[in-house]
Write a structure and sequence with these properties.
binds zinc ion; 40% helix; binds phenylalanine; single chain; 26 helices; 5-stranded mixed β-sheet; globular; 32 strands; alpha+beta; 8-stranded mixed β-sheet
């Protein structure tokens, strides 16, 4: 079948500098939800190398009222207004172009451009411009390599819109006739249009202050609706932590006199880094113990940090074009990861990031939507805010940082910011600055940006007791991906340490070197295959490989269960302890899938070592909790040629239950110890780690034996924070405990009206691995806590179902696919970006067993046959079905 996406394909190799640029912008807004008038005054300049080119301004979904050039109104035959552009032939090299347009925020459910949010009685207006939303506000050269200075004046009814905000520093305000008022803002930093923002409405505020290392006094504000403002204190603390950390770790100071954050419940993504005026999905901003889980607290820290860090990695230095998106996103995710790692638990953050990489990025790389970190083509750029661009992009930055060392990386980043400040840069610029500052050539690393697919790293170890030599052979292979049949070798840094059978560190002496080097080192595999020979190795070593997950590759090696146990017990890299436990669990899962049960000896080794781990009070409880939590089904199934999701579910459950049953005594002891010494509602890292382990123990205990459900009931009753309450609720539901439905009702009643907590309530139901969850989810779409137009609701219910409940989603009769297909169609009419994201769940059909393969494919085809699909969804469907 052929399905043409409705937008033309844009190619990286076709990039051309803009024929015209805009140096200065003056915008005037008369804000009104039903009809907002936008007057723009643009100073435009021609690129002398492109004589004759007309001025083409992007413009979508706006009603044009007037066009003037150098003060003179243009007759309609002097310009051309198309569906996506306003084209004006201009004779000279410089002009002042003025436009006046009308836009309608209150019907804008796409949540791009100017739209309305907030409760019915207090609607407020706000903007979202990345990637291409500014063209829905005013005609403009809406591309990231056009940087201009902005002066923005807002006018609105003072009673309905008492708060008026735009990017930059405030530059005057006052009253107007008829109960209206105005406010003006000047942003001294030239910026691309995707960083433009305004907010107008009745919001409550909290204020704080920060003095930068350069001595600038910055006023900090967070604005939210009245019922949410009391939950913004944690975010304010996080902001100050982020500002200080970026100064200390990367020497980056803030550069305006004011920094605003605004919360909204209507947002398609996590948050947005608009210059000096960040807009946040409330989900990543609000936190208090009654209404936020520990994970939510950590996400607030991470996302507040992320958006703040964009002020340098993204705003001061931006992207030349959208192909370079990872230049800001990969780098900023890396900076966010380091921020949380420095402030909270490095090991836990690393484990979580690797889980996300496996679940979201490896699967993307293995499916029809695979693309390089720097794509070479797109038809709808909104569809490239992906795990590949974000998470794999961050992994590339992490590898570069490990290769250059902490100081070298800092030097390189300093050079990058200094060289490209105020400009739009490329991946080549980034590698160039990092390389120049360190006197190395980093061009081989470009291949990581250009090549899609997850490299498989094969490792073979060979020890010769007679010569006391140890050989490690590493080989890499990347399977073809759409449009890239042939792959090249990538530079792969492999961090290695050797342990003896008792867990003692062994020296690392590479053959040919004068002496043993550091006991941990990074070997770089630059070719298809290489052998590293170590000499003077006293006994057969246990190899700790890819320490800290030093490269985003899939490690394949045959390794003895006994060796993994040595690592589980002794590895001094917390991540690799977990990685070894995961590797052993994967072996048991593979046995269970192939032979109907995990093999007894490795199972015994695994459970005995984890029993010790559970009893080890010296270990970080968060790490122990993670070691008790098996990889999710999709990740376990990743290497299977053909997937039967029900069989995968059963094999995984078997391994999980075997572990729980073998560990009842230590789990119970640990659960009791953690309960006796309850940390209440404290939210520091240590308290969070303890709760994490306590909830992991509870889940395992109830899985081992329903007799332990009384513990869950008691925890649910007594919980003093959302983490414990939700943890207990989830256990009661998965055990189908008699009290489960009463607990669900009690939870909903307690949190009535709290959208974010009710989203968790929707998710905990949508992720129950039971066939009848399909009907439950259908019923919940009619619940008063659910609205189709709210992206958080859609992700909490349907996203959780499609992406985190493989058993129910893949129900053999196709009911799960139907449910998601219909939801996609319904959401597409409201919020195309969200529909496109949800539709990616249907992309994995090729690897399913034949019956489900046909059912899922049919669902995609049914969707593709519908009229009036958005470009976002058409693009995903076309690529999912292609080939
Ligand atoms: N640039 C935002 C971030 O990652 C993400 C985003 C993209 C938000 C597009 C809204 C729209 O920080
Ligand atoms: Zn970002």
């Amino acid at each position: 079948m052929s399905l043409e996406s409705s937008k033309p394909v844009v190619l990286l190799r076709d990039y051309r500098a803009p024929a015209w640029c805009v140096t200065d912008v003056e915008l005037e807004f008369d804000l009104d939800p039903a009809a907002t008038i936008v007057a723009a005054r643009l100073v435009v300049e021609r690129d002398p190398a492109q004589p004759g080119a007309a001025l083409r301004l992007d413009a979508e979904q706006i009603e044009l009222l007037e066009v003037r050039v150098d003060g003179e109104a243009l007759a309609e035959d002097r310009y051309l207004l198309g569906a996506d552009a306003l084209t004006i032939p201009l004779a000279g090299d410089r002009a002042v172009v003025e436009t006046r347009v009308r836009i309608v925020p209150e019907t804008n459910t796409a949540l791009q451009g100017l739209y309305a949010s907030g409760s019915a009685d207090s609607r407020f207006l706000l903007t979202q411009c990345e990637a291409e939303g500014f063209r829905r506000i005013t005609p403009f050269l809406d591309r990231p390599d056009v940087l201009a200075r902005y002066v923005v004046t807002l006018r609105a009814d003072k009673a309905r819109f008492p708060l008026l905000l735009a990017n930059g520093n405030a530059d005057g305000a006052g009253d107007l006739a008829d109960g209206r008022h105005w406010a003006r803002f000047v942003d001294p930093h030239p910026k691309p249009s995707y960083l433009f923002a305004l907010v107008g409405g009745r919001l409550e505020s909290i204020e704080d202050a920060f003095v930068t290392a350069e001595g600038r006094r910055v006023r900090l504000f967070i604005h939210a609706e009245a019922d949410a403002i009391g939950r913004c204190g944690w975010a304010m603390q996080c902001l100050k932590l982020a500002m200080r950390w970026d100064e200390q770790r990367f020497g980056r100071c803030y550069d305006l006199d004011v920094f605003h954050i605004v919360a909204t419940h209507d947002f398609t993504m996590g948050a947005m880094e608009n210059k000096g005026l960040n807009v946040f999905n409330a989900k990543y901003l609000l936190a208090d113990p009654e209404q936020a889980t520990d994970d939510a607290y950590r996400h607030v820290l991470a996302v507040v940090g992320h958006e703040y860090f964009h002020n340098w990695s993204g705003n001061r230095v931006t992207c030349r074009d959208w192909f370079q998106l990872s230049l800001k996103e990969g780098l900023t995710v890396y900076r966010e990861q380091e921020f949380e790692s420095d402030l909270a638990s490095r090991t836990l953050r690393r484990i979580e990031d690797v889980r996300v990489l496996w679940r979201a990025q490896f699967s993307e790389d293995a499916g029809p939507l695979a693309h390089p970190v720097r794509p070479d083509r797109y038809s709808e750029i909104n569809n490239f805010y992906t795990a590949t661009v974000y998470e794999k992009g961050a992994e590339i930055v992490r590898m570069l940082a490990s290769v250059l060392g902490r100081d070298g990386f800092r030097r390189g980043l300093d050079r990058y910011f200094e060289r490209h400040d105020g400009h739009a840069a490329t991946v080549e610029d980034f590698l160039g600055a990092l390389g120049d500052a360190n006197g190395v050539d980093l061009t081989p690393w470009l291949a990581w940006y250009g090549q899609a697919g997850t490299p498989v790293l094969d490792a073979e170890a060979h020890y010769d007791a007679r010569t006391r030599q140890f050989e490690l052979t590493l080989a890499q292979h990347t399977a073809p991906t759409p449009g890239q049949p042939r792959k090249q070798a990538l530079p792969i840094p492999v961090a290695v340490a050797l342990f003896d059978a008792d867990g003692g560190r062994m020296p690392l002496h590479l053959d040919g070197e004068a002496a043993a080097g550091a006991p941990e080192r990074v070997l770089t595999l630059a070719a298809d295959r290489a052998t590293f020979r170590f000499v003077g190795v006293a006994s057969r070593p246990v190899v700790s490989l890819l320490r800290g997950y030093s490269a985003p590759v899939r490690l394949r090696r045959s390794v003895e269960a006994d060796d993994l146990v040595v690592q589980i017990r002794h590895d001094d890299d917390g991540f690799n302890r977990w990685f070894a436990a995961d590797a052993l669990a994967r072996q048991l899962f593979a046995d269970a899938l192939a032979q109907g049960a995990p093999a007894a000896r490795p199972l015994g080794l695994w459970t005995r070592s984890l029993a010790e781990t559970v009893g080890d009070a010296a270990l970080d409880p968060a790490l122990v909790a993670e070691m008790l939590t098996l990889a999710d089904a999709n990740s376990l199934a990743e290497t299977l040629a053909e997937v039967d999701p029900e069989a995968v579910y059963r094999a995984r459950a078997q391994v999980e239950t075997a572990l729980a049953q073998a560990l009842v005594a230590p789990l119970l002891a640990r659960y009791r110890a953690l309960s006796d010494d309850d940390v209440g509602d404290a939210v520091d890292t240590a308290a969070q780690a303890r709760r994490r382990l306590r909830n992991a123990c509870l889940a395992a205990l109830c899985r081992a034996d329903a007799a332990h459900l009384s513990l869950a009931e008691a925890q649910f009753e007594r919980a003093r924070n959302l983490t414990d309450r939700l943890g207990a609720l989830s256990v009661l539901l998965s055990a189908q405990a008699p009290g489960a439905s009463a607990a669900l009702d009690a939870f909903a009643a307690r949190h009535a009206g709290d959208m974010l907590v009710l989203d968790q309530w929707l998710s905990v139901q949508a992720t129950q691995a039971l066939p009848e969850t399909v009907e439950r989810v259908v019923a919940l779409t009619a619940h008063e806590a659910f609205r189709w137009a709210n992206p958080n609701n859609v992700y909490a219910l349907l996203g959780a179902f499609a992406l985190r409940n493989p058993r129910a989603f893949h129900r053999a009769d196709g009911a799960g696919y139907r449910l998601v297909g219909e939801a996609v169609a319904r959401v597409d009419a409201l919020t195309p970006q969200v529909a496109a994201r949800l539709a990616t769940a249907l992309g994995g059909w090729r690897r399913l067993e034949p019956v489900r393969r046909a059912l899922m494919r049919r669902e995609l085809e049914r969707l593709a046959a519908r009229e009036g699909l958005s470009p976002d969804l058409s693009d995903i469907l076309a690529r999912s079905l292609a080939g």
